[in-house]
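Field reference: sequence -> structure
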Amino acid sequence: MLAKQRLAMVLQPDGVWVIEQAVSHGEGIHAALATCYLRGWAEPLGNAIPSGEAPIDGRIDPNRPLFTHKTQLYRLTDSGWAVVNRLQFWLLCTISIGMISMIVT
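Structure field:
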């Protein structure tokens, strides 16, 4: 979830960040992010950052507020990236061993 975030653009003149695949605001998300922070995998970048969601069609309605709530922004630490990459390595090893086992049998 955090590893897929990407800064798509910075809107001017206010310097508003537009983040693709940002972390959603579900029920278990806050607890998961707090656990990652506790383990040193993620760290908060800022608190009470104005946040909102773009409309599906991409058109901004001037009558609708752009920012509807405030949120905390997180980023992966070096330890977090190590966990993500290690998980990918073990997944590739498991698939490789399974394929070799199927070929041998």
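Note: The first helix runs from residue 29 to 39.
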